Structure formats: C-alpha cells, structure tokens
TrEMBL record:
Residues 356-421 form the HTH luxR-type domain. CDD domains: LuxR_C_like. The keyword Membrane does not apply. This is Helix-turn-helix transcriptional regulator. SUPFAM superfamilies: ATPase domain of HSP90 chaperone/DNA topoisomerase II/histidine kinase, C-terminal effector domain of the bipartite response regulators. It comes from Streptomyces gilvosporeus. PANTHER family: DNA-BINDING TRANSCRIPTIONAL ACTIVATOR DEVR_DOSR. GO terms for biological process: regulation of DNA-templated transcription.
Length: 421
C-alpha cells in the first residue's frame, strides 16, 4: 500500500499503536485496529520466527479456544504473500468465512487469520492492502526482536521454549496412551455394536494422526535444518562484501540435523558481528565462514587472512558475549600476526541445564547438625551428648534425614553430605 494522501497518517498511527504494545498484546491490538474495517469474531496467528509461542489466538472463546496450528499451517504453506485470501474454511465445528493474510517479511513466513461473522460482505481491495501492510509491519518487528534479541529476552525465550517442548512431549504421551487404550477397548470382542465400534475406532485413529502431525508442525516451527539455517546466513552476508575486494568463502554444515531457532538466530548474529569486525581490518582479501555440528555443539568459524591482530576483548564488546552466555556458548580467538585470525563461536545444541539442586536444602537446621556429625562417623550416643538431646531424638532425626535424602543407609547419607560440601 502506498502511504500517501489523507489515509497515510491513520495507517502509520495504526501500525505504531500495534507494535508499541507488549508482545503478548500485539495480536489483540491488531485485532482491535482491524475490527472496524474487517469485522471478525476471532483472530489467530502462526509466526514461524518465534521459537516458544508461534501460535496465538484472540477473540470469541467459542472459536479462538478451538483453533489449532493444524488450521493455520495449510494457510501458511499455500498462501501468497501480498495477496490476502477470502473464503470459507471448516473451523471450530462449522464452516466459517475467513480472511487470511500471509507475509514474507520473515524468512519462513507468517500468517494472520481473521474469522468473520456468517454472511459478512467481501473486503474491498483498499482494506485488504491495509491489512497486508499492517501484518508485514508486525512480522518485520517480531523478526527483528527475534534475530537481535537482547540477552534477557533471549533467556526468557529459551526458558519458555524448553518448557513448551516438555509440555508438548508430556501431552503427546498422555494422549497417545489414552487413544491407544481407547482403541483396545473399542476393538474388544465383548462389544456387540460393530458399527459404533468402527466409527469410534476411525475417530481415535484420526485423533492420533492429528496429534502426531501437530507435534511435527511444532518441531518444524521451533527448529530448522542446519543447512537451511546456514543458507539464510549466507544470504545476509553476501551483500556485506559485494562491493569490496574481499572474497567470501562459505562452508555449509555437512549435517542433516535440525537446530533450535534460538541457536540458529544467535549463531547468525554472532557470525555477522564478527565478519563486520573482520572487514574493518586492513589487508584482508579472503574470509571463510563455516558451520560444523559435532559433539552436541554448533561451531561457527570465521577465518581471515588479515594482519592477525583480532582480540577477544575487541570482539566481545556489546551484547555478543552476553547472548552467547545465555545459551551456554563461548567465543575463542586464535590470532597469528601476519597470518590472520580464526574466531570460533561454540553453542550447545541443547538447552543449558540448570545445576542440580542441593539435596541438603530439604533438611532442617537440627537435621543438618545431626548429619554433619553422622558424616564424621559419630554414633547416636556421641551425637546426643554433643547436641544435648536424647538418643531417641537422634534416631528420629536420622530417620527423617534418610527419608528426605532418598537414601537407605547412614553411609549413603554421609556420602551425599560430603559431595554437597
């Protein structure tokens, strides 16, 4: 849409009002902005740039609560960016008129779905153009937040992504077990009504297939193939050297593995930052950029033939090292004067695990006192005399200690104490 004339200011104001909202309020605000032009009962988005919450809904709970990624994934795959689609889809138990807007403002695309009232009139071209422009602005804004995330936001994203993955896995196992049990019952020969049994079996099989499809879609959104992630990096690096004498060599990863979206984002951002620093040097004629996946890590390497004067302090300025720290990554610089520098960013492919909790935190003060003396090899009588309590009280504390620590003997409890200390 060309932002000129009397409609330009309202359009820009609408875009500003949407993107200035907190992330969780962007879809509700976008829905409110479009409601006057495209009346609708519910809105949903599928935004593949977001690793931890790519699917969001808003509006009438009767519809919004029943929408799933399975409803939007085909629209994302078949939609044409720049050409919003109007039609009817089976959603939330009924055929409903919808408007679907697809954007290519991000590499992997995003789709906005507006579920309209029955009998709603078609939307005219000018309103479609405004809806497209607003959705492009929103997806561009989100993509920038994802690719240039500050460490705090990246940490929250990583934590949410890990929690989401665990919840999906647990729900998948629970539903799979439930449906498997249902199939076993319905296939039992003790049931007489063959028609009912067959219908129920078909429904259960369809539910299992859909559940597995949802899990696959979630993985596709939260992760991407390493080769595809590197290709996106290559596309963003080529313009940096297009008009310079530096020759850029690219080494794509020789792996079919997928990498988490936040790992790919951070690796790309790190390489771009390092390359920009490398290009500031005099005497650089060739730079090699490569990724390698091995030993549960992604190693991104930038090697130049410059003066060999790069330092870790120079490269770690700003948010670069902080972003790597969030994912448990590290940056290494190997500079040889007169021969060039090699910079390697190493990022674990899995989420950084929190340290195991101290098992002794479950014990009370008196129990810790008893355990400390037990770990020294003292018997109950000696402990009782030193703490001025009875032997029966010592036995009571020892029993509680074994229970809380989940061990069966005084020796195991003593070993835990020494390990924690």
């Amino acid at each position: 849409m060309e932002l000129t004339g009397p409609g330009a200011v309202p359009a820009l104001t609408a875009a500003y009002e949407v993107i200035r909202q907190p992330l969780g309020e962007v879809l509700p605000r976008l829905s409110a902005v479009l409601a006057g032009l495209v009346p609708h009962r519910a809105a949903a988005e599928l935004s593949t740039h977001c690793a931890h919450s790519p699917f969001k809904t808003h509006g009438d709970p009767e519809i919004a609560a029943r929408l799933t990624t399975a409803d939007l994934a085909p629209l994302l795959a078949s939609g044409t960016p720049g050409r919003p689609w109007q039609g009817t889809l089976p959603l939330a138990g009924a055929d409903r008129p919808v408007l679907a807007v697809t954007s290519e403002a991000t590499q992997r695309g995003a789709v906005l779905l507006l579920v309209r009232d029955d009998g709603a009139a078609p939307v005219d071209a000018s309103v479609l153009a405004l809806a497209q422009a607003l959705w492009d602005v929103v997806t561009s804004h989100f993509d920038r937040l994802a690719t240039e995330a500050v460490p705090g936001a990246l940490a929250r994203s990583r934590t949410a992504a890990g929690t989401r993955a665990r919840v999906i896995a647990e729900l998948g196992e629970a539903y799979a077990a439930a449906f498997t049990g249902l199939l076993g019952v319905l296939r039992s020969r003790a049931l007489d009504d063959a028609a009912a049994r067959g219908t129920a079996t078909d429904l259960a099989v369809a539910a299992l297939v859909e559940l597995r499809a949802d899990a696959e879609r979630d993985q596709e959104i939260a992760e991407e193939p390493a080769g595809q992630a590197f290709a996106r990096l290559a596309d963003s690096l080529r313009p940096l050297v297009r008009y310079s004498p530096v020759r850029l060599e690219l080494g794509a990863p020789e792996s079919a593995r997928t990498v988490a979206a936040d790992v790919a984002h951070t690796a790309r951002a790190t390489v771009r930052a390092v390359l920009l620093t490398v290009l500031e040097q005099d005497g650089v004629s060739r730079v090699h950029v490569g990724w390698r996946l091995a030993d549960g890590e992604l190693r991104a390497t930038v090697r130049d033939d410059g003066p060999g004067a790069l330092t870790a302090r120079r490269l770690s300025a700003g948010l670069l090292q902080e972003r790597l720290d969030v994912l448990g990554g590290r940056l290494a610089v190997d500079a040889v004067p007169g021969w060039g520098s090699t910079v390697t960013a190493t990022i674990p492919l899995g989420a950084v695990q929190d340290p195991a909790p101290d098992p002794l935190t479950a014990l009370g003060e008196r129990e810790l006192q008893v355990l400390a003396r037990l770990a020294l090899g003292q018997r109950n009588r000696a402990i009782a005399e030193e703490l001025h309590i009875s032997q029966s009280t010592v036995k009571f504390h020892v029993a509680n200690i074994l229970t809380k620590l989940g061990v069966e003997s005084r020796g195991e409890a003593a070993a835990l104490f020494h390990a924690a200390a």
